[in-house]
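Action item from last week, closing it out:
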Amino acid sequence: MNNALLQQAEQLAQRRYTTLTSREELSDGSYVFVAYNPELPGCKSDGETPEEAKANLANARIDYIYFLLEDGLSVPEPASQALDREMTINVQTSTFSFAEGMISIVDESSHSFLELLEDKATTSL
């Protein structure tokens, strides 16, 4: 293994990827927990407990990213980072005050943060 690529893969794997777990029944009737990162198609792992599945996934994520880097492919970023960047772009291109938007968000607690931010950005353009 290329140590430089491995270090880069380990660093990238520490980013906050979405982790989902599910309990799945095997053909013999026993159960296993499966953990995966939707942003990394095919990157999955399993374990006897959700915690074990997540720990195994952390190791699998390093290998997954390592082989993407080795093949010269781009590494998908976590959904949270993509969302943060998209929200930053929307806020920067709109004319409403961020403080005004935050006050509205607090006042209208029945709506989600994203719905309100999108509404404010759309109506202010």
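Closing note: The helical segments are 3-13, 50-70, 79-93, 98-107, 113-124.
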